[in-house]
Amino acid sequence: MSSFIDKVTVKVESGSGGQGCISFRREKYEPKGGPNGGDGGQGGSILFKVSTQVQSLSEFRHRKVHKAKSGDPGRTKQQSGLKGADIELKVPLGTLVYSAEGALIKDLNTPDSFYCAAEGGLGGKGNMNFATSINQTPRYAQPGKNGENRELKLELRMIAEVGLIGFPNAGKSTLLKTLTYSNPKIANYPFTTLSPNLGTLKLIDREIVIADIPGLIKGASKGLGLGDEFLRHIDRTGLLIHLVAVEEDVEKCIENYTSICGELDQSDYNLLAKPQIVALSKCDAVEDDIIKKIEKAFKKIKISTIKISSYNGDGIDTLMETMLTTLNEKKDEK
Question: Which of 43, 46, 125, 235 could form a disulfide with 121 if both were Cys (CB 3.0 to 4.6 A apart)?
Fold first, then answer.
């Protein structure tokens, strides 16, 4: 079973502030020494912080309650209590923070972004703060303020410029490895990828993050197979590369393509509006005349295709050039 987790519910509780101190100076030559009770320390806060070392929300799977320590009480001699330690929870880039009711609170979509999920309570003021000309010996100090107690929902939507989509065994993981030198798990069985894999295509003047989205099947948008659990990861991409594995049954190739497009159209996200490059994959495995028939069938439905083989590298350069051109055109439109 995959350890990839992209939706969790967590409870966070910040620390309460420490009690202010009630104290008076008791020194040999100051029999009427004034108040010197210090302030309580602030409670610890809980923060979500993006880490590029984290790829999923799996750390929250078994530990769903996170509680920070309270601040220490104030001390004598005007000494403040120690602050409760903050808890910094690492989350992957692209994490969305929602309230328990489902309202979006924060989108952690940049490498340096963070969110204070629960702020520590302020420490109470010691009695040294309340001395006046009328009341020179105040016997009162503030209690610390309570910390925050919240339930939050975290959802991960991976951030990638390009998303690889297609039926299981369409060759997405192999193409990702070819383009980015990443090391996704590759095997010849129906659900090759159980979690999105990321890779970075490094060019001379830029880097392009590419995501291999788990294989979809007909009915995925309604929860069949892997369901719609991974469709959200396509939401942030600017370009989709739709892989269609070639086979002798030409009509089956067209059916596979239209079926995936149907799932994109029926999802809760506006995925079909994204630009697509349709790549005929595994072209090394069939005869040229079959590929020509498949190309002709796609032309009939007004779809341009690119022939590729991740095995021998055929068409990979053309695919990369088309990908860069499409991304640049999209960038110029903004």
Answer: 43
Distance CA(11)–CA(287), nearest Å, equals 57
pLDDT value at position 143?
96
Report which residue type is found at 42: Q
Radius of gyration of the chain (CA): 29
Please state, in angstroms and as integers, the Cα–Cα distance from residue 214 to each residue in 168, 230, 324, following that order: 8, 7, 23
The mean pLDDT of the chain is 86
- Other C-beta atoms closer than 10 Å to the C-beta of 141 total 25
- Over residues 269-292, the pLDDT tens digits come to 788 889 999 999 999 989 999 999
